[in-house]
Amino acid sequence: MRALLRDIPATELAGLRRPTEDDVDALGGLMYRAYAGTIDYDGETAEEALAEVRRTFVGEYGAFDPAHSTVAKRSGRLVSATLVTHWQERPFVAFTMTDPAFARQGLARATLERSMHLLRQSGETELRLVVTIDNEPARLLYESLGFVREP
Length: 151
Hints:
Layout: E1 2-4, E2 16-17, H1 24-35, H2 46-57, E3 63-64, E4 70-74, E5 77-87, E6 90-98, H3 107-121, E7 126-129, H4 136-144
Parallel strand pairs: 6-7
Antiparallel strand pairs: 1-7, 2-4, 3-5, 4-5, 5-6
Helix pairs in contact: 1-2
């Protein structure tokens, strides 16, 4: 999917910030909780989720872009994140994830909107991502933010 980045206001929500290397372990746990039991879950372990986050941070899915990525913290822990990379020299959402205990609170929208805003402020004009078509909640969120399917 692809969205043209438009001038949208930054999401003003307490607890939003850029991720750091110190967040890798917490992001691994968040990824495991977010994906376990969903259509995108293939039985990965918590250790495999952590390895996936580490691969993202070292650039396996394109150069990791912490300046345009966003995490949300609640109750002392990371509960939602949008991790942005640069794949084929364009911004790409490698992962968007929210802890199920914090679902339906607008956190996925807030982290993605903030990342989109930061990218636009930096002069980027579009953002891409890949989503499982049958993952209706994610697909509907992306569509509501202007993402459209590409052939």
